[in-house]
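Quick note —
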Amino acid sequence: MSQQQYGLVLSGGGAKGAFEMGVWKALKECDYSLGAVIGTSVGALNAAMIAQDDYDIAMEFWSNLTINQVLDLNEKMTNTYVDQWSKESFDVFRNGFLTALFSDGLDISPLRHNLTRLICEDAIRNSPIRFGLVTVDITSLKPRQLMIDDIPQGQLIDYLLASAALPIFQKQEIDGKTYLDGGFFDNVPINFMLEQNFSQIISVEFPAPGMRKWVRDNNAEIITVNNSEFLGGILNFDTRQIEQNIQLGYLDAMKVFGALNGKHYYLNTQKSNTFFRKFIDTLGQPLSNKKQLQKMLALLNLPGAASQRDVLDALENLLKKTSFKNQPLGLGMLEITAKSMGVPRLENYSIDFFIQAILKELNRLLDENLTLLDNPKIIGTFLTPSNGSYLRYNFITFYIVFLSIRGDLSPERMSTFLSKFSPDIALSMITIFYIHEIINH
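Predicted structure written out below.
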C-alpha cells in the first residue's frame, strides 16, 4: 500500500467506541499510514490512544472495561438504599434514585483514574500522528476544536473528559469554564480534519446522539467505515458486547479496505482457496449422483438434457431474486447457504474454511433433526398446494425432505412440492450438492 498519509476521524458514542478499536486493528494489518487522528467524545479517548500508538494497552483497557471503571455508582447508592429507600414504597425508591442520579451528575472519577493510568501525554505530544479533539465551552456557548498544540501542558486528561462530558455526567470544568460533550457541536469532525490539510480521510461512524456537520470539501476522498450490526447502548459496557463490537469493527473495516470479500460474511478468497476454485469450475456441470442431478434440474425447471450454460443461467436467474443479486454467483451461493443454516457470521474466514464451516453446520443440523422424517405429516405438507406461498420451515427441514422425496412423483405433485422452495432455499440445496461433488471427487 502507498504510504500516503490518511487522517482518521472517530465519532462519539460511549461504549460503541469499542468498534473503533477493531478498525484500528484493521488499519494496522492493512498498513495504512496515519498522519492525524481526531475524535469526539469516546472517539477523542480512542484517538489519544491511537496517537500514543500503544495498541496492547488500549485493547487491554477496552477488553476489561466495565461500568464501574467509567462511573462510580456503588457506595453512595448502596448506603442510601439500605438506610432509606429499602424502607419506602417503590415509587419513593424510584424518585429518590433518579434524583440522586441526576442532581449532581454521574461521577466519572473512575474514568479519570483509568485515563491517567493509560494515557501518556508526553508520548502523544511527541507522536508523529497528530492528535485533536472536539468539545463545547458552555460558558461562552462556543465549540472548541483543539489540536494537541492548542491544549496546555498537563491538561490533556481534562480536555479528554471535557470532550466526553455528557450532560448526565458531573460538570467538567477547566480554568473556570464548563465543558460539554463535543457531540453537541460535531460528532463526526471531518471538517476539522480537512482544516488540518488532509484530503484523504478515513471516517469511523455509527448511530449515536449528537450533531453531524455537512462536509465542506466535495473533493476530499473519504473512506467511511460503518457498523453492519447493532452495537448496543452508549452505556452498555457488557463484556461480550464490547468484544463483539471490537470484532465487528475489525471485520467491517477489513471489508471496506478490500482485504475481505462477501456481502453478509467476511471472506478471504485469496488464501487457501483450492476447494473454492474447484467449486467455481464444477458449477453447472452434471452431478455424478443421478438422483440429485434429477432433483436439481427439476428445482431449476430444466430438462434432462440441459447444458452447463443452461444450469449456470438458471442459477444466475435465481440469484437475482435474492438479496445477494450483486454478488458473483459462486460466492453468493455459498453465503446464502451459510446464512440459511446459521453459520456464525463474525469471523474472518478463508474461503475454503468457510466451505468446511458450511459442511460442519450441515452435519450438526442433520444430527439434531433426522427424526423429522418420523413425522409423516411433514412430507404431506410439502405435497399440499399452498397458493405458492413459502412455508416457514427452517432450511434443514427442506433439505431432509428434499433428499427423501421420491423421484417418481407425478409432475403435478412434484410441481407442488418444488413451489415451496424460495430462491434462497433452492440455491442452498444446489450449493450443498456441488460441495459434496467436489469433496467426493
